[in-house]
Amino acid sequence: MTANGHLPDFEPDDGSSSIYNARSVSEIRAALAELHKKEATVTSQLDALVSAQKDLQRELGRLDLFRANVTTQASKARAISNGMLSDAAANAKRISNSVKKLDLEQERVKATLTVVEQVGELKACILGVSGSMGAAQDWETAC
Q1: Rounded distance, CA 112 to CA 119, Å?
Q2: Neighbouring C-beta atoms of residue 79, cutoff 10 Å
Q3: Residue ranges, the chain, pLDDT below 50
Q4: The pTM is what?
Q5: How many helices (H) and strands (E) does the chain have?
Q6: Contact yes or no for 19/26 (Cβ under 8 A)
Q7: Distance from CA of residue 26 to its chain's centroid?
Q8: Cα separation of 129 and 119, whole Å?
Q9: CB 8 within 8 A of CB 2
Q10: Closest to 38 measured CA to CA, from 24, 8, 17
């Protein structure tokens, strides 16, 4: 289009006859036939583009439906995952607390065993001192 909104005069670049250059009725008919061929070509190209646009619109609609389904499925998967993870987290916390209690009990048992061993050594020492102070009266050994 030109600046004034009109279509420019069609002048073919291939040097073929133009309706504007025609000098006789036969030249006008030949130019008109050529224009009809070009019109048919352009019309078929436009029809193909419109058809392709319809196909594209249909595919875009399918993609929108697919996107909606995927979004729904992702939301459901997130909800299921969160439910599973919260159950797993609760189980992990319960197990962790049980392990901490077992560790504390193990430390207490070890401390008790240490005290029992020390009491046993002390008892052996007392028996040795008592034996040395008894009949033998070995004061150096007793000390």
Answers
A1: 10
A2: 10
A3: 1-15
A4: 0.40
A5: 2, 0
A6: no
A7: 71
A8: 15
A9: yes
A10: 17
